């Protein structure tokens, strides 16, 4: 069944019908060519997720009724935030799409010392709108019950200020991999408990500067390597999320 992530909370989805319009209506009617009686998953921002059945169409809307609650939970048991230095081309879109599929709770882009790309305020607004749409589509495709929040920070200081409430904080640093460091990431995962939060910072193509690493360490971030190979900027976050999924969803 197709899943649709709703932007508004549903207070009484069992007792009332749900009306969809706009992009959801277009996708149901014109892309999926669904008919009356077709069942879909609906998920609201409060992670209420249920099976709904189409009962009627108008020219611009589709009306659905509740059938049953969805008992399956597809969310990671820990809240993982990925913070990635701005990358070139469409790499950021790839990170957002795949990080969503792999269970990230929040995805942050930030301007790093070695970021080639520079965004002005007008471009940031357009990019975040597009990124959020990519995250929503990826959440629907991967049958999640939550759409990750996508945000952008203009500098490292803003990221550091936002990091104070996280339970665990790591920064992937290629210099650690070069000298053979391979235990801190795994050790941290053994310490993370269900319901806790984990923030992991990654650099852009040129990595993070020594000054940035120093600032991160001063705020309690632990530098770590990600194995013996040096990973691309768009690969490292996905490697980390896959390892987290194995630790908390497959291993346990």
Automatic annotation (TrEMBL):
Keyword annotations of the record: Cytoplasm, Methyltransferase, rRNA processing, S-adenosyl-L-methionine, Transferase
Subcellular localization: Cytoplasm
Domain Ribosomal RNA small subunit methyltransferase E methyltransferase per the UniProt entry, residue ranges: 75-245
Cited Pfam families: Methyltrans_RNA (PF04452), PUA_4 (PF20260)
Presence of keyword S-adenosyl-L-methionine: yes
InterPro entries reported in the protein's UniProt record: Alpha/beta_knot_MTases, PUA-like_sf, RsmE, RsmE_MTase_dom, RsmE_PUA-like, tRNA_m1G_MTases_N
Gene Ontology MF term list: rRNA (uridine-N3-)-methyltransferase activity
One cellular component term from this protein's GO annotations in UniProt: cytoplasm
UniProt record similarity statement: Belongs to the RNA methyltransferase RsmE family.
General function of this protein: Specifically methylates the N3 position of the uracil ring of uridine 1498 (m3U1498) in 16S rRNA. Acts on the fully assembled 30S ribosomal subunit.
Record protein name field: Ribosomal RNA small subunit methyltransferase E
Native source organism of the sequence: Jeotgalibaca dankookensis
């Amino acid at each position: 069944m197709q899943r649709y992530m709703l932007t508004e909370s549903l207070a009484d989805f069992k007792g009332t019908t749900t009306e969809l319009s706009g992009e959801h209506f277009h996708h149901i009617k014109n892309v999926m060519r669904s008919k009356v009686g077709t069942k879909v998953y609906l998920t609201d921002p409060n992670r209420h997720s249920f099976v709904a059945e189409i009962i009627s169409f108008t020219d611009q809307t589709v009306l659905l009724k509740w059938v049953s609650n969805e008992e399956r939970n597809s969310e990671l048991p820990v809240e993982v935030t990925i913070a990635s230095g701005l990358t070139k081309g469409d790499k950021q879109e790839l990170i957002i799409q795949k990080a969503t599929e792999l269970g990230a709770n929040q995805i942050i882009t930030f301007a790093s010392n070695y970021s080639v790309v520079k965004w002005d305020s007008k471009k940031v607004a357009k990019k975040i709108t597009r990124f959020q749409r990519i995250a929503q589509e990826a959440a629907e495709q991967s049958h999640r019950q939550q759409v990750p929040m996508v945000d952008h920070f203009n500098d490292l200081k803003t990221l550091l200020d936002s990091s104070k409430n996280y339970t665990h904080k790591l920064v992937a640093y290629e210099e650690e991999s070069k000298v053979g460091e391979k235990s801190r990431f795994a050790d941290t995962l053994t310490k993370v408990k269900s319901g806790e939060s984990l923030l992991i910072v990654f650099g852009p193509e040129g990595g993070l500067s020594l000054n940035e690493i120093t600032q991160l360490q001063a705020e309690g971030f632990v530098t770590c390597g990600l194995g013996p190979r040096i990973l691309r900027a768009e690969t490292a976050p996905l490697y980390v999320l896959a390892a987290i999924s194995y630790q908390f969803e497959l291993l346990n």
